[in-house]
């Protein structure tokens, strides 16, 4: 069993899709993510919920998300999102952390490598959306076949 941290925005939920949509509807807004309900209403990315269920069941898994400094409500909305999609118990697995190098563990799955010190994480950084790991299917394949 490994200790795995999984990012939320653009890994479990579609931040960029909602950001673009909000900007289309309101082109003058400076920070679309600052709006009420922005974080709670994000759509899950394909396969994210299913694969997260696997990780939560078979590994020591946490959701590690950086807060948006443009929306202090995101602390609550991110928690509600996890409750909506995974249930209350998984709130015990939610960490809101602006500096991911503070986390202790084996793997960090994140779409960004240098916005929140992801590349200083002590374990292995798996970049979601990279050539090697373009989607959840490639990540689950890796964990099932190559991680003991
Ligand atoms: Mg992200």
Structure characteristics:
5 strands; 148 residues; binds magnesium ion; five-stranded parallel sheet; alpha/beta
Q: Can you give a write-up of this model?
A:
With 148 residues, this protein is of the alpha/beta class. It has a single domain (3-145), classed as HAD superfamily/HAD-like (Rossmann fold), CATH 3.40.50. Helix content is 31%, strand content 14%. The chain is built from four helices and five strands, in the order E-H-H-E-H-E-E-E-H. The chain has helices spanning 15-25, 48-58, 74-86, 136-146, and strands at residues 3-6, 60-65, 94-96, 107-110, 124-127. It has a five-stranded parallel beta sheet, with helices on one face. Strand 2, helix 3 (74-86) and strand 3 (94-96) form a beta-alpha-beta unit. The longest helix is centred in the middle third of the chain and has 13 residues, at 74-86. The radius of gyration is 15 Å and the shape is globular. The N and C termini lie close together (8 Å). The structure holds magnesium ion. The site of magnesium ion has 7 residues, from loops.
